[in-house]
Design a protein that fits this description.
The mean pLDDT is 77. The longest helix has 33 residues, at 35-67. With 80 residues, the chain is α+β, with helices and mostly antiparallel strands. The protein is built from one helix and five strands, in the order E-E-E-E-E-H.
Amino acid sequence: MEIEGTTFGTITIDGKTYEHDVIIRLSGEVVKREKEAVEEVLRHLARALERRSEVRLRERMRAAHSRGRPNGQCASIAGG
């Protein structure tokens, strides 16, 4: 499999020119990229990253609590 060239809006793979986005599978098969499928993957990734941030915040709060604070009070402010 050889990507022979690209221009704005096209890609040439093994002598065949495609005028749309493509996915090259591990088997070497070239298929049209479906926009909806990619958008679903991006939504899933965004949700996973959001959950990961929430888990990290909870872990930081637990760690701060376990170190102990005067009068049992603990405040945690996190950004980004």
